[in-house]
Design a protein that fits this description.
alpha+beta, five-stranded antiparallel beta sheet
Length: 158
């Protein structure tokens, strides 16, 4: 079995495990986050170097780092956090004003701040935004983009 085939097998096993864990309603957020992070990290690692030993090292490193980060986020951010973040994103791009969110159950919070607005070549209006999320006392920064739909609603596109 080639090195690439072995890495692909590891990735498929991790992805399958994630799918099975997701089917179990009692699955722990940390486990799902770890499996998802490991699968994603392994996939990213496979894209870095496909030509031999370096590829295997990149996949292994990506899998380990992805698992650690995914587990941490999965352990710390619950469904209510994600819902409140999504609501803040929608409100921020709709009103073009900074929005804050807070989950008293976890203590996690954040802000979403719209920045540049632009029009695509096809005439669609889009807005970029920055978000700051504090999860378990650790601040994380993110960026995204939303575009206005024909019905006037905004859809997060990245």
């Amino acid at each position: 079995m080639s090195l690439f085939a072995s890495a692909r097998t590891v990735f498929l096993v991790a992805a399958s495990s994630l799918a099975l864990a997701g089917c179990n309603q009692g699955a722990q957020k940390e486990t799902v986050g770890t499996l998802f992070g490991a699968a994603l990290g392994g996939w990213v690692g496979s894209k870095i170097d496909n030509d031999g030993i370096g590829g295997a090292a990149a996949i292994a490193t990506g899998t380990v780092v992805g698992g650690l980060v995914g587990g941490s986020i999965g352990r710390s951010m619950d469904d209510v956090d994600r819902l409140k973040l999504a609501q803040a994103q929608q409100a921020a791009v709709f009103t073009n004003q900074q929005q804050q969110w807070y989950n008293p159950n976890t203590g996690n919070y954040g802000t979403v701040t719209p920045s540049q607005q632009f029009q695509t070549a096809s005439g669609q209006y889009c807005r970029e935004y920055q978000q700051t999320i504090v999860v378990a006392g650790q601040q994380q920064q993110g960026y995204g983009r939303a575009c206005q739909q024909p019905d006037g609603s905004w859809r997060i596109v990245s």
